[in-house]
Amino acid sequence: MSERAHVTVDQARSALAGADAARRGLAARGRWLAGYFGAFAVGSAVVVALIGLGGDAGTTLAMVGWVALVSVGVAYAATRPVRLRREGWLHAGGWVTWGAVYGVVLAVGHPRHGEVAYWLPAALVSAVPLAATALVALRWSRR
């Protein structure tokens, strides 16, 4: 006789309830991660716009704001009890891609300080990798 034959109805209900609670926790984590990356996407757009259009004061404000956003984001992420499968890959892919785009945007834009026609679209382009990562996290939460 198999071991399953010894499972009581109450044990089966308890196991199903535990599985459902885990599923809901993972879905909530995916939704939270989508918000997390979405906030960083918006932050990136603001930072790039301030760097390109705000002069020295804008660059200083952008860096102070970015440090604050990263500090709050990392501290809050550390309190999340549930991790998605492959979440490390999601973070690595999102941040490495963002870093490359951000670097290109700044390098190409350096001689164009103050040109709205460059910096506003560049700000939006800088947000794309993190916005895409937010969408992936949201999709994963619906699995």
Question: What report would you give on this structure?
Answer:
The protein has 143 residues and is mostly helical. The protein has one domain (3-141). The protein is 83% helix and 0% strand. The chain contains 4 helices and no strands. It has helices at 9-53, 55-78, 87-109, 116-141. Helix 1 (9-53) runs antiparallel to helix 2 (55-78), helix 1 packs antiparallel against helix 4 and helix 3 runs antiparallel to helix 4 (116-141). The longest helix is centred in the first third of the chain and has 45 residues, at 9-53.
Secondary structure blueprint with pairings:
Elements: H1 9-53, H2 55-78, H3 87-109, H4 116-141
Helix pairs in contact: 1-2, 1-4, 3-4
Helix content: over 70%
Judged by helices, strands and strand pairing, the structural class is mainly alpha
Our Rg estimate from Cα atoms comes to 21 Å
Low-confidence stretches: none
Largest sheet: none
Mean pLDDT: 85
| Termini gap | 35 Å
* Continuous helix count: 4
**In percent terms, what proportion of residues is strand?**
under 5%
Helix/strand order: HHHH
Per DSSP E runs of 2 or more residues, the count of β-strands stands at 0
Q: How many structural domains?
A: 1
Categorize the overall geometry: elongated
Determine the oligomeric state from the structure.
single chain
Concise synopsis of the structure shown:
The protein has 143 residues and is mostly helical. It contains four helices and no strands.
